[in-house]
Amino acid sequence: MTLRFGVIGTGAIGREHIKRISNKLAGGKIVAVTDVNQASAQDAVKSFELDAVVYPNDLALLAADNVDAVLVTSWGPAHEASVLAAIEAGKFVFVEKPLATTAEGCMRIVEAEMKHGKRLVQVGFMRRYDSGYVQLKEAIKNNFIGEPLMIRAAHRNPEVGENYTTDMAIHDTLIHEIDVLHWLVNDDYQTVQVAYPKKSKHAHENLKDPQIVTLETKGGIVITAEINVNCKYGYDIQCEVIGEEGIVSLPEFQSISFRKNAMFGTHVLMDWKDRFIDAYDKELQDFMDSIKKTGEPNGPTSWDGYIAQVTADAAIKAQDSGEKETITLQEKPVFYSKPTEAVNA
Ligand SMILES: NC(=O)c1ccc[n+]([C@@H]2O[C@H](COP(=O)([O-])OP(=O)(O)OC[C@H]3O[C@@H](n4cnc5c(N)ncnc54)[C@H](O)[C@@H]3O)[C@@H](O)[C@H]2O)c1
Ligand SMILES: O[C@H]1[C@H](O)[C@@H](O)[C@H](O)[C@@H](O)[C@H]1O
């Protein structure tokens, strides 16, 4: 069975996913596309030689009988409406982060999905599929470093545009660490605080960059995460888990080493698209495979999207207050507690 996809949003990541579903992965086909910029949707069909219909909007696309699943790859503020409409239409949804831009919006999706009665939604938290993070999780689970005590993480982008605002450091960038780090140590967040080191001369006038976010978990683990989105030298993701018996670190992206001009070195990637390319492939392959096998997606859930958004909201509050803010989650519904496979365990 081929899963027939409609794509809502044919920008950067929408196109990446169209390419991988059409040319690389097994079991999916793009049959419909839409974008508020219709020229972009038409261009995507032409560029990737898709046998797909261009629809005027998400609702028209969702009404098409031959669409089994949608990729929601539009701008964050548009996600909630498309995801709710897809659930209403009983279609599977792969939605890029954020699930919705508010915790209330995420909860509306959670409630709609529970009302539907089975899982339809997977959130694009692809780091859970990255082999480096999977190895870290295995090591922690197998007690290789004893009890984890601290995590040091860094999320560095080479540069950002003028439209990137201080709060985006949390809800657009740190959101990946917010999701993957509590998953890594199987713990819940309790508090968050944000500090601002000396500002980088590369940050535009209204942007506070870099930032240091400190998260504490209920189990007492202290996480410090650096967000540094004008670091210039590359796209660099770091994670070190310090345990009672040792330390485990995220492997560097594999690249040749070189000896040249009196230097010994290796390359650093410049683009997020390359850094997690295998994880993007795996998350979408898993989405298709698990729907075929079990009738439901298997990866990060709407509840994971809700946890990330509540945490991001508290962190944004902490950006303004300078105080330690509390992270308060509602109780996890049984619907999202049933055991799934490794990625979600
Ligand atoms: N998982 C990741 O690592 C990752 C990486 C990049 C982007 N993202 C997320 O993916 C989403 C898209 O990011 P991008 O970089 O591709 O942005 P983009 O601006 O390149 O593309 C977004 C596209 O959506 C279209 N759009 C906006 N509102 C729409 C609507 N209501 N209906 C249909 N189309 C609409 C825009 O016209 C644009 O073509 C964002 O939520 C972003 O946070 C995730
Ligand atoms: O800061 C960027 C992250 O490093 C990427 O992984 C994407 O999520 C992108 O949307 C963010 O702007």
TrEMBL record:
Pathway info: Polyol metabolism; myo-inositol degradation into acetyl-CoA; acetyl-CoA from myo-inositol: step 1/7
Coiled coil feature spans: none
Signal peptide stretch: none
Keywords: NAD, Oxidoreductase
Record domain Gfo/Idh/MocA-like oxidoreductase C-terminal: where: 137-323
Keyword match Nucleotide-binding: no
Known catalytic reactions: 1D-chiro-inositol + NAD(+) = scyllo-inosine + NADH + H(+); myo-inositol + NAD(+) = scyllo-inosose + NADH + H(+)
Assigned EC number: 1.1.1.18, 1.1.1.369
Gfo/Idh/MocA-like oxidoreductase N-terminal domain boundaries: 3-125
Function comment: Involved in the oxidation of myo-inositol (MI) and D-chiro-inositol (DCI) to 2-keto-myo-inositol (2KMI or 2-inosose) and 1-keto-D-chiro-inositol (1KDCI), respectively.
Alphabetized PANTHER family for the sequence: INOSITOL 2-DEHYDROGENASE, PTHR43593
Subunit structure: Homotetramer.
Family: Belongs to the Gfo/Idh/MocA family.
Name of this chain's protein: Inositol 2-dehydrogenase/D-chiro-inositol 3-dehydrogenase
